[in-house]
Amino acid sequence: MKNITYKFYLRKLGNKHYLYLRLILKRKKSEKSLKCYIPYPEHFKGDYVKGTYPEAVKANVMIGYWKNRISNIILDHTLKRKEIDIHDILHDEFDCKAYFFDFYCKMFQEKQQLLKRGGWKKYLTEYHKLKEFNPNLNWADFDRDFAKKYYMWLINEKKNNINTANRALRLIKTVLNEAVREGYLQENPMKDVKTKWVKGQLTFLTKNELMQLHTHIFEKETEPKLKIVGSYFLFSCYTGLRYSDVKKLKWSDISENYMVNSSHKCNFLMVQI
User: Fold this and answer.
1) Secondary structure element (H or E) that encloses residue 9, with its range
2) pLDDT tens readout for residues 232-273
3) 159 in helix, strand or coil?
4) Through-space distance between the first and last CA atoms of the chain, rounded to whole angstroms
């Protein structure tokens, strides 16, 4: 329908910028706050927010949700030859019974408040993969056949390894289980889909290889950016810290010859340096 147009824009309220959706239908204009605060307005590019910080992620999820919602409603009303009312698009409730991605976005927003960044990024990554696989995915599409097709698509098209593909299926089953608990489905259509974990073969740097890398980074004319990255990598090798722990390290964590730092998977680490 050519008489429907929409635009995402920022509105300054006080000292903050908030994301809004403007919808024009039959010369009638309506606006809706998407309840997203954008701390860096220069990162807003019209229908996308640059960055991986929480506010940018939430804004991009909401933009994707409303784009998908508008296109689905237009398609649904076109097939049924029904007139579209602005209220059909801008009402406050997620129409989860009609659209799978609406429920996914709702669930993502709820879990974003509970999970750490690594956890909710998995939901976001899987959301984009599912949208790429089938942008019009609905509840009726989920069955054992879907699981096989999606699994092979992840392996062959996205070049995911076996564990990554199986983790994707497990996350979808989690979403479907939540839909059952909330009454949107009677049962999980993928409940009988089995996933497995294949033990990978880890490789380690030898002491000689580590020394060669150290020499290349600190004793040769190495590009400055590469020297910085290499320094972080060697520091992780020497201390056993994960990148996530190195990233949040402060000078206050270092005392005399020891470094004490909290870790994601244990209460604290004490490393002699």
Assistant:
1) strand 4-13
2) 888 888 888 887 788 778 878 777 777 776 555 544 444 555
3) coil
4) 66
Return the CATH superfamily for domain 98-201: Tyrosine recombinase, N-terminal domain (1.10.150.130)
Sorted by where each begins, the domain ranges of the chain are 1-92, 98-201, 203-239, 246-273
Element (H, E) at 80: helix 54-80
Q: State the Cα–Cα distance between residues 7 and 40, nearest whole angstrom.
A: 19
* E strand residue ranges, 109-181: none
Per residue, the 3-state secondary structure of 195-240, as one string, reads CCCCCCCCCCCCHHHHHHHHHHHHCCCCCHHHHHHHHHHHHHHHHC
Query: Are 3 and 26 spatial neighbours (Cβ–Cβ below 8 Å)?
Result: yes
- Residue 126's alpha-carbon distances to 131, 144, 175, in angstroms, are 8, 18, 11
Q: How many Å apart are CA 234 and CA 211, to the nearest integer?
A: 10
